[in-house]
């Protein structure tokens, strides 16, 4: 029994190392540029283990993408926004999304890579569909509570609102290099990041306030 338990723990640890290495490699060079040899070396595993646990490179890419999206969805649920007032809940969500992008730059590059391949690696993920439905319902609940107390206007689409929350942070960060050249400002200075967050919150609130 002890030997079996240890074997399971070892297998779980190996899979975790492979996923972490693959996430880093796919975020760095994309699906096309990633090499199984490099992932194996980073994970301190051999190629046979990668094929054994995950199949080929594309299968591994699917798992990495699914886990990346599920991570942010689970983190959003952990905010427990239903215990906050609608206005505070929505502001918390905007702050969280912004900070998540800053803390997890690999997520943004993985999203870029997923869209480069037209989302086909996520099409079969029922786990992701379920998590996304839960997220939409969470935002819908915030909006309905706000409308019910007269704070928010009625008829705001939770999906459209989420697209806006994601976009105003995502675009700023993915275009920070070209933007710095064109607008002659340091997008990533502490002051600039604080100003951007304040602008994001103000923008979203103006969209929903009654």
TrEMBL record:
GO molecular function terms noted in the UniProt entry: DNA binding
Name of this chain's protein: Nicotinate degradation protein S
InterPro entries xref list: Homeodomain-like_sf, HTH-type_TetR-like_transc_reg, HTH_TetR, NicS_C, Tet_transcr_reg_TetR-rel_C_sf
Record-linked SUPFAM superfamilies: Homeodomain-like, Tetracyclin repressor-like, C-terminal domain
PANTHER family: HTH-TYPE TRANSCRIPTIONAL REPRESSOR SCO4008, TRANSCRIPTIONAL REPRESSOR
DNA-binding region, residue intervals: 35-54
A UniProt-annotated Pfam family: TetR_C_29
Higher taxonomy: Bacteria, Pseudomonadati, Pseudomonadota, Alphaproteobacteria, Hyphomicrobiales
Ranges of residues in domain HTH tetR-type: 12-72
Keywords associated with the record: DNA-binding
